[in-house]
Amino acid sequence: MSHSKSRSLFLTSLLFLILIATSLTSGAVSAEENVPAMWGELKPGNYKIGFRTIFTYDLSRPPVPYSDWDGRLYPTNETKGRQMQINIWFPAKLTEKSNRIEFRHYLQLMSQQTDFSAVDDAMRAFADAQFIYKTNALGGGESFTQEKLEILKKLKTNAYTNSEHVEGKFPLIVFPNGGSPAFQSIMCEFFASHGFIVAAVALKGQDSSTDDVSLKGFETAVIDLDFAVREALEIPQVDHKRICMIGNANSSSHIVAYQTRNPNIDCIVSLEGGLLSEFEQRILRQTPFYDVQSVDKPILAIYAPHPSIDPKNIEHLKYSTRYIVHFPKMSEFHFLNYGPFERFVPNIIGKPRGDVGKGFERGAELCLEFFNAHLHDDDASLKRLTQTSVVEPIDAFEVKKGLRVPPRIAFVKDSFTKQGIGYLEKTYFELKKEDPTPFSKSFYNDIKDWLAWKKDPEYKNRFRLYKLALDSYPDSSTIHYYYAYFAAKIGNKDVADKHYRKALQLLETDSSPELTVARRAQMEEVIKESLEKQK
Hints:
Serine Threonine Protein Phosphatase 5, Tetratricopeptide repeat; single chain; 18 helices; Rossmann fold
């Protein structure tokens, strides 16, 4: 071989080695890199995907035992505090130590939701048994077996352990699920490849690992979410000013309950979630911060046929721009990993109505467009989202533009101290040009209580306040009651008499949640006593 040919071969080999080294350290995905089979036709973004798990404790609360969905408890050895396993996917630089993981890695983490001990054979067997049990409970009957699980365990993911964060700041997506990370890993990987840091956490109940679908359960979930968000914000690469949440099943209501308390949350995805059910709306209305005016961030509501799910149940969230998408051949849990898994284990959670793998992919793509539009302020993504084509697997799409959000109560109080009740009246009628009920009933109640402390000794401001409330809610027994009460206080007996009688009449039909049996009885007694005095 000639010297020139040897030199050429050496340079070619050197270039090849440089390219390999570059691919290991760069965040960009090479064109030759294989997308894992479980991704189907999902297109990866510009980043390789790192994965790591944070095992931490909420020291302010006690540890809880593991509980299966039937209520059986499994003791824990943990004593430090409430066990919080937080799984993180992120744009990554790979190193020589980076390892591409199989699905079995996510699966075995299910055994460490309440026990942070090193995984052994017994824990692996426990995780397998729980995944089989939960899969069959979701519709598989008894058809999902260990043999079928082994097929899934060997599937390659698109995530790597022992990798490093790409430098820069990336928006945060929080994705809670009780089967984390084995239930939602594919979407989490997909989002991370497109430049997002994703945090997945299993929300727990107050006394065990299984969450409760109740008021107490929602309040407990909010505390868990707050802990997980604060932990994720400690990651230096997270942009704390850009946060979105995505929830499936009852987690979709949990994240809205949390958003009402944390204005830093920029957007919400209800991924075939119970947010669109009347049952979970009833629970949300009992939470202390849930108010029409507090749900003011964009919502992507993806839903499938279900007797309890209907977009009309979020019609009242008028300050939120809602993108509502219907997938007629999907079901609730096919929007999780079970959609893609259908290709490897047919009928994994029952016979599907259509191509649920394709439906999963379209759902993931819509979520990505939504995140880009509202976390990156990307106009092109927003345009594509608002012009979503109604083609298979979607049969309905609608955008409900959010109304202008009224000023928050702290600003109203400040303006009142400077401008008086006239400010509130002016603001009300400006907003009413596009919104017939600019302020909620709870808003009027809060301002009323605030004025009661040495700010309205002659009751005139509260009378004018409830005149506005009456203009918005003429069928509310409570509003008529207070309007009459303050009319009596300023000496307007005729108005008081008229509206006390109207309040009494409406008590028979008013189904407002604040009208408990005790409250109805109290109002009726006060009204009758007041009318008797005026005879």
